[in-house]
Amino acid sequence: MSNPNPGGQMFPIAKMPIPRLPALLIVLAMLALWTSYYTVPAEAEGVLLRFGKYILKVPPGLHFKLPFGIDEVITVPTQRQLKLEFGLATAGYTNPDQVGVEPLQEKSMVTGDLNSALVEWVVQYRITDPETYLFDVREPGQTLRDLSESVMREVIGDRTVDEIITIGRQEIEETALNRMSELSKHYHLGISVNQVQLKNVDPPQPVQPSFNEVNRAQQDRENAINLANGEYNKAVPRARGEADQKIQGAEGYRFKRINEAEGDAGAFSAVLEQYIKAPDITRTRLYLETLGDVLPQAKQDIIVDESVQQILPMLPLPTALPEEKK
């Protein structure tokens, strides 16, 4: 568009240039501000990289870094208890290494007595060295899964199926934990294995009914043994108590007879000593004392001393006992 001038000629009007440089600077400043800070969660540590090179570990909190991708921060959950599941899968997991690709294949194992078993277990661990965990091994989570599966198959292969299902579970867990801890340090995974826990240990599906019958028979056997032990614990202490009571009674009777015999012997010795000193007097005293003990118990009084026969008419004796008269 042009404006007329006094001479009647048309001249174009010059356009003003748009100021683009300040707007670009503002965008760059906002982008730099947006990429220059970051936050590390409370349960994690940050690993700061500058052009891909490790610089330092960053504690939880708000931090600043060089913008535009010069510095990069990788967050590692060092304060969380992580776990790996073998043969099972818990819903809602967040750890990508927690569940395997083929759980059925993982839990299928062969025991030391050449039996098949389906073993499910869980490995709990923590990341202790973020730098080692990120840079010394390419895939530390998958490496730990392979390591754990190898150790568990080795431990299961050294034991019978009965030990795995019943009495050997705790020993298996302890042995596997120690072995996994050693191998984790050996391979520089930067983690510490805290617990190995066996979950379900079952025989394969085709033989499970027969195996259940064997387990029921074993349980019945254990119940019968427990009942027998209960009866034994009742009868044996009672018999032992009765035996001890009889032994103590016999011991008391023995001491009683010994004391009585010693008393009788002492009394006889005392009488003998007096008899040696005065035989007639002692004999008469013994005779009278004996009559005093015997006559009150006699049913019929009979005097046999010839020296007193002259007074018998004064003491007529009954001709028969009261029982004979009846």
The helix-strand sequence is EEHEEEEEEHEEHHHHEHHH
| Contiguous uncertain segments of 5+ residues | 1-5, 7-11, 310-317
Tell me the name of the CATH homologous superfamily of the domain at 82-203. Answer: Band 7 domain
- Mass-distribution shape: elongated
Average residue-wise pLDDT: 83
* Radius of gyration, taken over Cα atoms and rounded to an integer in Å: 54 Å
List the defining traits of the structure above.
single chain; 326 residues; Tetrahydropterin Synthase, Chain A; three-stranded antiparallel sheet; 9 helices; disordered N terminus
Kindly describe this structure.
The chain has 326 residues and is an alpha+beta fold. Among the domains are: 32-79, no CATH class; 82-203, Band 7 domain (Tetrahydropterin Synthase, Chain A, 2-Layer Sandwich); 205-246. The protein is built from nine helices and eleven strands. The protein has helices at residues 20-34, 103-107, 130-135, 140-156, 161-165, 169-186, 208-277, 279-294, 322-325; strands at residues 2-4, 10-12, 37-40, 45-50, 53-58, 61-64, 71-76, 82-86, 108-110, 116-127, 191-202. Strands 8, 9, 10 and 11 form a four-stranded antiparallel β-sheet that branches. The protein is elongated and about 170 Å long. It starts with a strand and ends with a helix. Residues 1-5, 7-11 and 310-317 have low confidence and may be disordered.
